[in-house]
Amino acid sequence: MSDGFADAGLGKPLGGQPARLGALDRRLREAGLPGVSAVPGGLSPPDADRSETDRALLARFLRMVMPAADETERLADTALTRFGSFAGLLAAPLPELRGVSGFGTHCLSALRLLNEAALRVARSRLQGRPVLADRAGLLDYLTSVLARERIEQFRILFLDAEDRLLADEAQARGTVNHTPVYPREVVRRALELQAGSIVLVHNHPSGDPTPSREDIVMTRQVIEACAVMRVAVRDHLIVGNGRCTSFRDEGLLA
After folding, report:
1. Mean pLDDT computed over 172-197
2. Measured at the alpha carbon of residue 178, what is the angle toward residues 152 and 124, in degrees to the nearest 5?
3. Closest to 241 in 3D by CA, of 201, 203, 200
4. 239 contacts 203 by C-beta, under 8 angstroms
């Protein structure tokens, strides 16, 4: 059975504008919020300019959570200039959000809630199905979780014998360019969950998903430790800014 990545071109950009907007539209609707196409005066994908669509959507969101506020369009422009996109705004750390003049407590709470809802919707799409066969859903979820992290985060996807997701857990958080990983802890947790295989995942805050020498060495150490207990390492995915690299596709799991 194919892992679902061999023909996926994981070293390439993670889809075009229509795919990104479609995913955002689905998440907003399933979270009980208006989708991109519901924004009055907004443009609809695939012909919409992305920055204009984000501006219209964010302005509508701000009017909903801050009905008494003036100049929500100006505030939307300020936030998008600072964070680059609506998705970047949602994923931004709370201290940085507090730095936006005009974002009150209610707005900040709504943004965190919306981000958490979006992540849960994306995660729910992976439950109960072969994770490695759903490339689009997996990359959409991992990008939502990791692509805009300011520091490295190491995660593990634990899979059962049929490649269904048992758990997705953050194992460690490091610095801007290094995360400590302990192979024995990875194996221990896999055995606790009775996982038949795992997928290693981490991000590169620089945006470049090219594996470093340390990434390759660490992956081999985890593979060797897991092999003793017959737990397979199916892949190691590095998430960058709009791109993802698969160790399996690059022949780096041997």
Report:
1. 82
2. 25
3. 203
4. yes
Contact 55, 62 (CB under 8 A): no
| Contact present, 156 and 198 (Cβ < 8 Å) | yes
pLDDT at 5: 41
Question: Which strand (E) or helix (H) includes residue 68?
Answer: none
pLDDT for position 159: 95
Nearest alpha-carbon partner for 121 in 239, 17, 18, 26: 26
Q: How far apart are CA 237 and CA 206, in angstroms?
A: 15
Q: How many CA atoms lie within 13 A of 151 on its CB side?
A: 9
Q: How confident is the model at residue 178 (pLDDT cuts 50, 70, 90)?
A: low
Tell me the domains of the chain and their CATH numbers: 17-121 (no CATH), 149-246 (3.40.140.10)
> 153-159 and 165-173 as β-strands: parallel, antiparallel, unpaired?
antiparallel
Q: For residue range 85-133, what is the model confidence (pLDDT) as tens digits? A: 888 888 787 888 999 989 989 899 999 898 888 878 877 777 777 888 8
Distance of alpha carbon 25 from the chain centroid: 16
pTM higher than 0.85:
no
Helix%, strand%, coil% for the chain, nearest 5: 45, 15, 40
Task: Give the pairing type, strands 244-246 and 153-159.
Answer: unpaired
**Which of 205, 195, 129, 140 has its CA nearest to residue 166?**
195
In this predicted model, what pLDDT tens digit does every residue of 146-161 receive, in sequence order? 866 778 889 999 999 9
